[in-house]
Write a structure and sequence with these properties.
Blueprint: H1 2-20, E1 25-27, E2 33-39, E3 44-48, H2 62-69, E4 73-77, H3 98-109, E5 115-120, H4 122-133, E6 137-143, H5 155-163, H6 175-183, H7 188-196, H8 203-207, E7 213-218, H9 227-231, E8 237-242, H10 253-265
Parallel strand pairs: 3-4, 3-5, 5-6, 6-7, 7-8
Antiparallel strand pairs: 1-2, 2-4
Length: 267
């Protein structure tokens, strides 16, 4: 009995630490808990990570420190289904712009208005929804993204939805992504739901966006289509290309330099 009690007492601090590690958290519109971090002071900028990423994906990026050095307040979050945020196991939990609504709710919770947003890869797809949903958005950066996502039947999205939903045999060309997710211990069911419900923003919707938007990609990146095609859809867009491929551009000095220059010009 004493041995069992000792084991229990030893385990209690570990449980507490595990719970604390998810803090700070914000409870979103449907009860989903979203992990976030805030650093710095000044004008707020929210960083939106890509597929199979989390808020920590920005930690080693040159951009994060460059923003802090320039006097911005940096907000990072783990989108639902990722990192230390809740990972609902129902497809309904990811429908109806749930991820964009999480960001809007978080910024409201933090009482941060007139903010900028920087998305990369799938994070750009979510940020594009903010362009049409959130009047508090002052300017936005869509990185690593072409116009392909504007098609709700985008073949790449549909392939990834099947890849993470038990039909990997249909897409051997993307098997590496699934293997990487499993190796990293990611929640593949949640990732599948994210792809199944991934939003598209139509060309008509984008044509009505009036705020400044930077479209930026690496010179070796057309994974998600051509950035120039996306820039043509946004009336107040700036197009920039920097050295890099889809995997390394968001963390580069060139990316940080162009994003910072854009944010300063969009005052």
């Amino acid at each position: 009995m004493k041995n069992r009690l000792a084991i229990l007492l030893l385990a209690l601090p570990l449980v507490s630490l595990a719970q604390l590690s998810r803090e700070p958290q914000f409870t979103s519109f449907d009860g989903t808990k979203i992990h976030y971090e805030v650093a710095g002071e000044g004008k707020p900028v929210v960083l939106v990570h890509g597929f199979m990423g989390s808020g920590t994906s920005w930690q080693k990026a040159v951009l994060r420190q460059a923003l802090l050095d320039a006097g911005y307040k940096v907000v990072q979050l783990d989108l639902r289904g990722n990192g230390m945020s809740d990972k609902p196991h129902t497809v309904e939990a990811y429908r109806n712009d749930a991820e964009a609504r999480d960001i809007m709710g978080l910024m409201n919770f933090l009482k941060l208005k007139n903010y900028d947003a920087v998305g990369y890869s799938r994070g750009s797809i979510i940020t594009a929804r903010l362009l049409v949903l959130d009047k508090n958005l002052r300017s936005a950066v869509l990185g690593g993204m072409g116009a392909d996502f504007t098609d709700p039947n985008w073949a790449r999205r549909m392939a990834f939805a099947e890849l993470f939903s038990g039909k990997a045999h249909l897409h051997p060309e993307f098997q590496g992504a699934l293997n990487a997710a499993k190796t990293r211990g990611l929640d593949t069911l949640a990732l599948g739901f994210q792809q199944q419900t991934q939003p598209s923003t139509s060309p008509v919707e984008l044509s009505k966006v009036k705020i400044p938007v930077l479209i930026i990609s690496g010179d070796q990146d057309e994974d998600n289509g051509r950035a120039g095609d996306l820039a043509k859809l946004l009336p107040n867009s700036t197009l920039k290309t920097v050295p890099g491929n889809h995997g390394n551009t968001s963390g580069s000095e060139g990316f940080a330099r162009e994003v910072l220059a854009f944010l300063k010009s969009a005052k």
